[in-house]
Write a structure and sequence with these properties.
The chain is mainly β. Helices cover 11% and strands 32% of the residues. The N and C termini lie far apart (38 Å).
């Protein structure tokens, strides 16, 4: 029997850099979602040593290895369906009509968590090289309680949890 998915690790925009702090922050995840701009295939392989991985291709992901990656994916996490894409501006479905509860994207490098019309839209931020003054983050989605909980982890400041408006 497969283990129930209750904690989902969220990562995006590694751009070829997978930090040890990111790996530590994602430990204990039942599933890891990478929302694109991976940079190199070894990152996916390393994440798979922690948990099963759902990954989508981002705009910098090029070459034969990347062409095999989907542009969108649906991850099942217990009774929660998670739609994954790289750029939220390219969302081409109605999540509510499709039975989706969570939409995960990357691309902007800005961590965010917003609920609209019963759908939780998450961006874990960028876990790769720092861009401008944006934090370097991953996120954890905890599905163990009736209200989903999202924690953002700042990888460059002692893995402290951030409050994201």
């Amino acid at each position: 029997m497969a283990k129930e998915v209750t904690v989902v690790g969220l990562i995006s925009d590694t751009h070829g850099l997978l930090r040890e702090e990111a790996l530590r922050a994602l430990e204990g995840s039942d599933l890891i979602v990478h929302a694109g701009d991976i940079g190199k295939p070894e990152i996916i392989d390393t994440l798979k040593t922690l948990a099963p991985v759902v990954v989508v291709r981002g705009n910098i992901d090029k070459g034969a290895w990347a062409s095999e990656l989907p542009l969108t994916a649906i991850a099942g996490a217990g009774s929660t369906s998670i739609y994954v894409l790289h750029d939220i501006q390219q969302l081409d479905i109605d999540p509510s009509a499709a039975g989706i509860r969570v939409v995960v994207s990357g691309h902007s490098h800005k961590p965010s968590s917003v609920e609209r019309s019963g759908i939780l839209y998450l961006n874990p931020g960028s876990a790769g090289p720092r861009r401008f003054r944006l934090p370097v983050t991953v996120a954890r989605l905890d599905l163990r309680q009736s209200l989903m909980r999202v924690d953002f982890i700042d990888l460059c400041n002692g893995a402290e949890q951030l409050t994201i408006p």
